[in-house]
Amino acid sequence: MDGTNFRPFIPMNLPHPFVIRTREILGEEFDALIAALQQTPPTSIRSNDKIEYIPSENQVDWCSSGYYLQERPLFTADPLFHAGAYYVQEASSMFLCAIAEQYLTNVEKMLDLCAAPGGKSTLLLQHLSTKSLLVSNEIVSSRANILAENIIKWGNPNVLVTNNEPHEFKNLSGYFDAMLIDAPCSGEGMFRKDPNAISEWSENNVKMCAERQRQILQDVWEALKTDGILIYSTCTFNRLENEENVKWICEELGAKLLPVKIDNYQGIVISDVGYRFYPHKIKGEGLFIAVLQKTTGISHFQKSKIDTKKIISVKSDIIHPFLLNEKNQGYYIDDKNGISAFDKSFEKDVLILQNRLKVIYSGIFCGEMKGKDFIPSPALALSKVLNHESCEIVDVDYQTAIRFLRNETLNLPEYKRGFLLIIHNKIALGWVKNVGNRSNNLYPKNWKIRMKI
Q1: What is the pTM of this model?
Q2: Which tens digit of pLDDT belongs to each residue from 127-137?
Q3: Which of 233, 268, 245 is nearest to 100 (CA)?
Q4: Could you give the number of structural domains in the chain?
Q5: What is the residue range of 120's domain?
Q6: Residues 286, 312 within the same domain
Q7: What is the sign, positive or negative, of the torsion defined by CA atoms of 77, 80, 83, 84?
Q8: Please, which residues bridge with residue 374 across strands?
Q9: What is the pLDDT of residue 53?
Q10: Residue 47 shares a structural domain with residue 184
């Protein structure tokens, strides 16, 4: 999410069936909702803990790293945005932070099933234990690539990005301790941010979304262990996709509701089976979220034999100098000369998941060997495990940072030859290879800034 496609709300005639449905839910407050939908949506971001970045004093109540901005800047023009210093995220969805603090502190393995573009996965990575492994999945291939980019820029090593259909998780029966299903929905809660959501709305689409959500839940349910936590959310208002589906989960799949502490937060509406966020009551968009605990199924995942041939022993003088906490980064996977690093406690789990899922990114991709030379990757530069003391650093000004992010050539004759880490405002942007009279820019071409700034 880079803010370049943002469009303010344009008042439109709301579909009559939507008005009837939503008025039944809100009663006298319906007019207040309509008034809120005519207002400019608030802009909020969530800061990354890899840099001390506090952009505003106006904090999101339920998320310690969430902040409201007074106005929406051009995020594409900010090098800190490209470096993963923060994520542009709608404030209501940051309520996942409060849930994580209450229910996910001891989770070992978690699945974010419908994760693109990455807002909730990056939030989870910030609040899960470093000993927790997150599988961040997206069904649509093109969106999975965007998800991988945002995960890379966030910089955590304890994550795999996958591109699988929900039913493909059935071969991981009882594997996950927790799941987040931010289900594809009719998008009523995003009407003021996305006018297209209004024109695409229909009663039939609401029904189709509700049916699809149930199918997704049914397909992936077996992968959640007994007593595991399910967080179910949508960005819509109707009861069919929200309360009715949660009741169906409890009755048909086997689960019980869990309460979330909201005493310190004003404006959140408690429904009979979950929590509702309305634009006229909180500073954010529409959201429904519920937390459940599975009561049926399989308690433990049965591990099969692990093929350890992919594990390689990397010469310490090649990889280790680049990494912090060397003792914990003792596990590597070699894939066609590419080297990814994980905490060694994830060794067996990563191999299991790579064998059973379509993994498109995992751990921290450190780089690749070309002959005897190691070529460090952009992911390593942006990661939280890079040892900056092992790098030759070039601290650049704003204009040079933008040139770098455009993938332009930089002239750095005063620096030694070899790989140089480009830094701006205390955060890494990526690598160049200095060859004397010029430097080869290693910033990924598919990430580069294309718009005129």
Answers
A1: 0.92
A2: 999 889 999 99
A3: 233
A4: 2
A5: 16-294
A6: no
A7: negative
A8: 369
A9: 83
A10: yes
